[in-house]
User: Fold these one by one.
Assistant:
Number 1:
Amino acid sequence: MNIHESGQMYLETILVLSNQKANVRSIDVANHTGYSKPSVSRAIGILKNGGLITINKEGYIQLTDTGKSMAESVYERHGVLMKALTLIGVSKQTAEEDACRIEHYISDETVEKLKEFINKQRQVAAPNSAPTISDQPLLRSHEAE
């Protein structure tokens, strides 16, 4: 299923919130994104109809296997982009903003090549102790909030 940038962003937000707390509701998504409750409700309905999330009778949102896979892909792309952009000297704030835009459009091939580049740079910096990018969790800067 091909979903728009906003749908990917909602899936990624649900994934991030699910990693922070046991149960996620639409209000949590609205608070995290700053979007209005009606906007979030509409988006959640679209994701549900698309089979990307389920909502139980208590209103808790869960990603389906397909939804989780899509969310993890966007989340990984964001982390790779953040690392690559900061590695070349982009400020953390600008890298965060740019990664949020780019993550929805970048090809799988480019993501893989960026991972290889990052790993090579780490090997040059610390040849005996540098873990590869796939060995470390990729965290968005706003997750530390």
Note: Confidence is low (pLDDT under 50) at residues 135-145.
Number 2:
Amino acid sequence: MKKLLLSAVLCSAGVLAGQATITFQYQGETLPTGAEITYTGYEALPGVTVGTWEYVLNPKIFVVSDEATTITIQMESNEPIQFCAGGTCTPASKNPSKNDVQLKAGVPVDLLLEYITDAGDGSEGVDIPSITLMISAYPNSNPTVKTTVWVKMGGFLAGVDSLEADMNSVTLKGKSLVYNLTGASQLSVYSLSGKIVANESVSGNGSLDLSALPSGVYLYKLTGKKGASGKLVLK
């Protein structure tokens, strides 16, 4: 009888241990279920067609589990969005979902959530609509244990020359792009046709020499933990 009782207790403990806990993370913080975040940033990236640009909203939200498991992620939005967590990207829609996202214990996975809009040649501002997005995730082994967060983003006029940039990190002095960074980044300069005309791995304090470039308007993009983008006018 004692052996049977012990076996039953162990089986019960095994069931409890197998119930993975899924959480979302944003800017290094774990979000409680039902939390709401507001994202106001965006990036300007070269479009598929040479000379065109896209504005991309990517709030960089991560999903993590305390146990190795396969999860389902579901989203509901008032605007078409896509996400690529786990590898394959969903088609852009108002209700994208994936049921095969594999997580390792304690390893955050970027949702790679994106709202993308065409910016043409980047010369004019683009109205980004207000987007309200609900994100839910649950382990496939227990769909009743669902974690949900809300995201609000957009609702502003986007333009290459009004991108949110940390001007203490990147400034133009003459024909040098001076940077002051806290970590490693990639600094790229584009022509208005979308061609990369300067590209360098940077960190700390320094400058990128642009004296070889003819006078004109260019775009720069700093990628890293704290990115920046904007327009350059070389005289």
Note: Residues 28 and 112 are 15 Å apart (CA to CA).
